[in-house]
Design goal:
By secondary structure, this protein is of the alpha/beta class. It contains 11 helices and 15 strands. Strands 2-1-3-4-5-13 form a 6-stranded parallel β-sheet, sandwiched between helices. Strands 7-6-8-9 form a 4-stranded parallel β-sheet, sandwiched between helices. The longest helix has 20 residues. The N terminus is likely disordered.
């Protein structure tokens, strides 16, 4: 899928466009709603840059490729985008897909600014070519583990699927909870929802975390747990953020409320965040998720880099440690963080929130990191 140069403000720009490759999950099995929000943020920011005259009079052009949550497809897209002459690649939501894109970008010498994927090991070895806006999984999930402890939940069960992302999340939770008196029991999602409920009762779990895809198998599990009177007191959680999006509420209704998850927004947006949030809401026809803000911030960072460094790929990559950009969620700068091989914004705001059972369209902040 391609998008043409943004027409907004085209009268203020001239010269050849500066191409940015964008990796976005737009078809299943990718998380399509997350992809839609990410693309909305990317595209809005591109239009605003072009409306203000572009980059030294040259318009930005977003060249979009659908990853469909497929790592091989993402790596091939990076190859194609590099051949098309993009100044940089941006985007992606799924961690395993972003990891494949980052590895290919590193090999080819193409700057990659990862918008929304959180897996700590985005690259096997340290690289100068990749930077990331989203917080690392170890950072956000430790905050989530602290929330569980504060809520008095120490016997944690995780319903998990085979994936490096879910395995990494389980390890973060176990490593953080164990020294503080918590336990983590892994339950395979190949169990029927009824059998999973039986296991929760047998083990005396006080919380069940959904480390599993949406809508399957997460939605049937939630329905089963909510319908089991033996589990009336259990906390159901989803640290990866499944309840953020409207399709979760549409699928589960009241059963989808009161399920804490991680999102990367401050308690109160500043003037820039408020303005961008209003524009995103109009564009999306619903409240923008943190993923939409991540998309906007991605282009804001790259526009600043391109204005100062030009379009040479090496110069773009070399500029990561000098970035200082006002984003929608606070000042953005990149640094080297122990255990993480890419340039990292340390850290965006992190919240644990849920949908209010009394008003499922409203989010309640339960804990902030």
């Amino acid at each position: 899928m391609n998008t043409p140069p943004s027409p907004s403000g085209a009268e203020h720009t001239d010269g050849p466009s500066i191409r940015l490759g964008a990796l976005v999950p737009l078809t299943r099995p990718g998380w399509v709603e997350a992809g839609r929000h990410l693309l909305a943020g990317l595209d809005l920011a591109v239009r605003e840059v072009n409306g203000a005259g572009g980059i030294d009079g040259r318009p930005l052009e977003l060249v979009v490729r659908d990853t469909a949550a497929d790592p091989e497809r993402a790596a091939a897209a990076v190859d194609e985008l590099a051949h098309l002459g993009v100044a940089a690649v941006v985007g992606e939501y799924h961690s395993v897909v972003a990891r494949a894109a980052a590895a290919r970008a590193d090999t080819l010498g193409v700057p990659f600014l990862c918008s929304s994927a959180v897996l700590d090991t985005l690259t096997e070895e340290p690289t100068e070519w990749v930077a990331r806006l989203a917080p690392a999984q170890s950072h956000g999930w430790r905050i989530y583990a602290d929330f569980l402890l504060r809520a008095g939940r120490r016997r944690i069960a995780v319903a998990t699927q085979p994936s490096v992302y879910w395995a990494s999340g389980t390890r973060v939770l176990r490593d953080h909870l164990a020294p503080r008196g918590g336990t983590v029991l892994e339950l395979d999602t190949t169990l029927t929802p009824e059998a999973l409920c039986d296991a929760l009762v047998e083990h005396g779990a006080t919380a069940l975390l959904l480390l599993a895809g949406h809508p399957e198998p997460a939605v049937p599990i939630v329905r089963a747990v909510r319908g089991d009177r033996r589990l009336a007191e259990i906390l159901v959680g989803a640290p990866a953020g499944q309840p953020e999006f409207a399709e979760w509420a549409a699928a589960l209704g009241e059963d989808g409320a009161g399920i804490p998850f991680l999102r990367y927004l401050p308690e109160h947006l500043g003037p820039l965040g408020e303005r961008v949030g209003k524009e995103l809401r109009e564009r999306l026809g619903e409240a923008p998720s943190f993923v939409a803000f991540e998309g906007w911030d991605t282009v804001a960072v790259l526009a600043a880099v391109l204005r100062s460094q030009g379009t040479d790929r090496a110069a773009v990559a070399e500029s990561w440690p000098r970035v200082a950009v006002e984003g929608t969620r606070g000042p953005i700068q990149f640094s080297r963080t122990p255990g993480i091989g890419v340039w990292q914004w340390a850290w965006p705001p992190v919240q644990v929130v849920d949908r209010d059972p009394a008003e499922p369209d409203r989010f309640r902040i339960l804990h902030a990191g």
